[in-house]
What we know:
Bound molecules: flavin-adenine dinucleotide
CATH architecture of the domain at 4-42 and 105-167 and 263-341: 3-Layer(bba) Sandwich
Oligomer: single chain
Radius of gyration: 21 Å
Amino acid sequence: MADYDVLIIGGGPVGAALALALRGTGLALGLLEARPRGTAADARPIALSHGSRLILERLGVWERLAGATPIRRIHVSQRGGFGRVELDARQAGVPALGYVLDYGQISEVLVRALEAEGGVDLIRATVGALESGTDAATVVAAAGDGRASARLLAVADGGALPVARLRIRDYGQAAVSARVSCSLPHHNVAYERFTPEGPLALLPMGEALALVWTTAPERAQQLCALTEAGFLARLQESFGNRLGGFKTASSRAWFPLALKVADRIADPRTVVVGSAAQMLHPVAGQGLNLGLRDAWELAMLLRDCDRVHIGGPELARAYSARRRLDRGGGVLFTDSLVRLFSNELAALKLARGLGLAVLGVIPPARDFLARRMIFGARG
Ligand SMILES: Cc1cc2nc3c(=O)[nH]c(=O)nc-3n(C[C@H](O)[C@H](O)[C@H](O)COP(=O)(O)OP(=O)(O)OC[C@H]3O[C@@H](n4cnc5c(N)ncnc54)[C@H](O)[C@@H]3O)c2cc1C
């Protein structure tokens, strides 16, 4: 007999959200997380969509994410080119287009909620290997001789273990994240500016702004090594003066970027969710939003599933089918944005300008874009 009905590998935001969504089902639930308790996750900024807020409200944790900064407008433009588009929360019929928080805070709040409310065995251990059998799958600890089995393994490890076959596109880009302040108030506007080296986003975060700056990996490392004054000068050159002068920069870190998409997200005993299923470029802030929808939809299927069918072929088929459109849409949207905007070909620059201008003046096209960003491809 299996130790668990569902065993989740990875207690990042997606794995933890899945565990929270399964509380109260009577299923035997376990979650394995490699990071020791009390160690902080990184401070990358995350823009959660209104759709993610609705999921987190249903999980009962939204009010604990105090201090999330609402995005009332998104301003999209390209450096050195014409055309721009503005998305507005009121026009989209939502209180905010998104909410900015840091990754560490979201992870911490979700794991604390799991610890406080019980119902899930939270085990601090690194999984080294998975073995799939007919009636159950087994995880093997990376160190020691620990093992645990489950009817279903839900892999939410961010892609650390080689579970699924991946389609990979290396963008040859990295993202620098930082907190910056500037001389003009942000008025809760988020800026997405496409530059020849990659997109540069500035998101309102408290009184300050969270920066996600895409560039070549070598330049990302150089930018992180610069003095604060040197970094601010480069940022000013790239972003321009729309927010006045940049004054301070802290918490600089860089992340390599690639698109990694799992060919299959479900086999009878194993499903993958979140970044383990699709790791996206951070342009347009889609990755975690998509991952939370993976977790939510899988949880809904498990809630409707007889215990004996958990880990069976029908559940695998239903989960794959349920996620196809949303995943495909998210991948296509972010990948197209990166490839269309990260170059200086004159014809493309003109087409981009025209595209942005058209989106800017045709409300249905703009509202379509806003709904996709808020609710995903099925919005
Ligand atoms: C710079 C940057 C900015 C971003 N901005 C946004 C944004 O604005 N909006 C958005 O929606 N998304 C954004 N993303 C994407 C977002 O960070 C990811 O989509 C999200 O972190 C995925 O969550 P996850 O839980 O699937 O995986 P992860 O966050 O990677 O968590 C995986 C967890 O699994 C654990 N783990 C790994 N291996 C093992 C193992 N062998 N055994 C046990 N545990 C293990 C890890 O310790 C970790 O806790 C951004 C990404 C970057 C890099």
